[in-house]
Every structure is written in C-alpha cells, then in structure tokens.
Amino acid sequence: MNLYDRVSTGIKGFDEVIDHLRLGDNVVWQVDSVSDYKKMVEYFVQSSKTENMRVVYVRFANHAPIIDENMNIETYHINPKIGFESFTIEIHNLIKEQGKRVLYIFDCLTDLLEYWYSDLMIGNFFKATCPYLYDLETVAYFAIRRNYHTYSTIAGIRETTQLLLDLYQINEKTYIHPLKVWQRYSPTMFFPHLIQGQEAVCITSSSDASELFNSINRYEIRLDYWNTVFNDAKKNAKRATRGARGDKKTPDAHANWHRITYASALRPVFFPQRYSCHCIKRNRHRLYRREKRRYAPCEKNIRG
C-alpha cells in the first residue's frame, strides 16, 4: 500500500487500529445521535485540512449541520424532496464534477426516511453511490442511527461499504467498535476501543467488555418505515371503526399515508385525500410491490 493512498481519521491511535483509511473507502458510522457522528467528522476534517486535502460536505438532512460554517468547507445542498432517482443522479453528478481523491462528508442517511418513507430506497441509494465513490478513489463518511433500520438494510450496507464502525458514547466516554474493515486485519482490530484523546485503548478485559456491552442499547427488531406507517394506519382505522373520538394522532397519520405516495416526487398522488383509511390499508401491499419494483437498484440508469 502506497503511503500516499492512506488517509487519517484524525485519531492517531485509531489509525493504528485499522491501519489507516485508504483511498476508495466508504466509512459508515452507526450512532445513537448525530452529535456523536459530528465529533468523528471534526477529527477527520481537521486532519484532512492539515494534509491539504479537499473536503466536500453534502447537506440534505433536517438535523443540525455536521460541519460548522467557520470550518470553511465546500458545502453542497441537495434536496431529497425531488425523489430517489433525481436525488441520486444529482449526487452522482456532483461526485463526477469534483473528480478523484476528494473527501466527502454526508449527512445522516436515516433522515432520508422523512422524505422517502422506505429503508429499501436508502439501501439502494447507498448501494448505487458507494461503488462510484470507490472508483474515484475518494474517502466518504456516512452515518446511520442505531435501531432505526431493518436487518436487511444494515446487511446490505455492511456488504457494500469498506468500513462499518459502531460508535458509542457511554458515561461521557467514547468507544469505537469496528464491525467491518475491508482488506485489513490485526488480532485486536475487531475489539471495542476506548478513545482517549489521540489514543485508542483496546478493551480486552472480559470484565471491561462485559460492562461495556451491558450498557449498550441492544438491537431491536425493526420494521421497514413503510410498514410502520401502514401499521399506524391499521390502528387508526380500527379506532375510526369503533367510533373513537378525540384521537389527535389520526390527522397526522392520515397525512403521512398520503405523503408516502409522494416519495418519488415524479407523479401525482396515488390516493386522493377523499379516500378513507380503510381504502389505503387495503391497498398497502399493492402499493408496496409497485414501489419495490420502481426502486430496485439500477446503477446504469442512474449513472447514464
């Protein structure tokens, strides 16, 4: 490996753990909060600026900015409301314009659920974008929130990315647990590590490891966001059937069921507002099958 193909995370001790980042790496951080992800980004950006490497921030989410304005980083705003295909094409065009060996910071991918209503589309966006970034020898940071996505979505992301890192903030201590580090290995690489300044202390003691994992939020079985919305529809439809009154959540839920058909932003609403909760519920599986066919990965069309 050429020395010039290595990139620092900004934490020297963790660089030694994973044998540095490499050009072409996509790095996915699983976090409990965006603020935790921001800390890792700050380390990365400061180190990259010291090495005079170009950093580009891709902004699309509603959460607070990952990079502060005073850091003077190129920032591009892409609106996810334009739909999956148009959003992905704009991202790819941006990456193409920037050229090779650029470092990217992306907002938290989980926030795309607010616009696309489906884990399926988030997974497909990642699968379509990561290989393109790899080909251009970039290093890209992404984040997903823990316990928000289905197992199949996480599995697809894990298969595609070069690094998958669990980030934990417990009792004001920061831990990084590498789950996947592509084409690198050491006897302690996949142990959790306590970050202390620029040091990364490997947690090998069984008592320390037990204390750490007992403090961690265990993974829960998660439904696709699409299914969650329609389950809400089912519950509210039952309330309506029983003549329940005063349910303040029903109007918001009803708005969600109708907005979900705007996910592609490329055609009119599928269900007019005059349609009842029961009508939407009955058509749930037909609508899901249609969207699943529509958003199957198609990298050739996106890149073309």
> Sheet bearing the most strands, described?
9 strands, mixed
Radius of gyration over C-alpha positions, nearest whole angstrom: 21 Å
Beta-strand level of the residues, as a percent range?
A: 15-25%
Segments where pLDDT lies below 50 for 5+ residues? 245-249, 261-275
Order of helices and strands: EHEEHEEHEHHEHEEEEHHHHHH
Mind telling me the CATH superfamily name of the largest domain?
P-loop containing nucleotide triphosphate hydrolases
* Shape summary: globular
Oligomeric state of the chains? single chain
Total DSSP helices: 12
Q: Percent range for helical residues?
A: 40-55%
CATH topology (level 3) name of the largest domain: Rossmann fold
Mean pLDDT: 81
Number of domains: 2
N-end to C-end Cα span? 32 Å
Helices and strands in order:
Layout: E1 6-7, H1 12-18, E2 21-22, E3 26-31, H2 34-50, E4 55-59, E5 74-77, H3 84-98, E6 103-108, H4 113-116, H5 119-135, E7 139-145, H6 151-160, E8 163-170, E9 173-181, E10 193-196, E11 199-202, H7 206-215, H8 225-241, H9 249-259, H10 277-282, H11 284-294, H12 299-303
Helix pairs in contact: 3-5, 5-6, 8-9
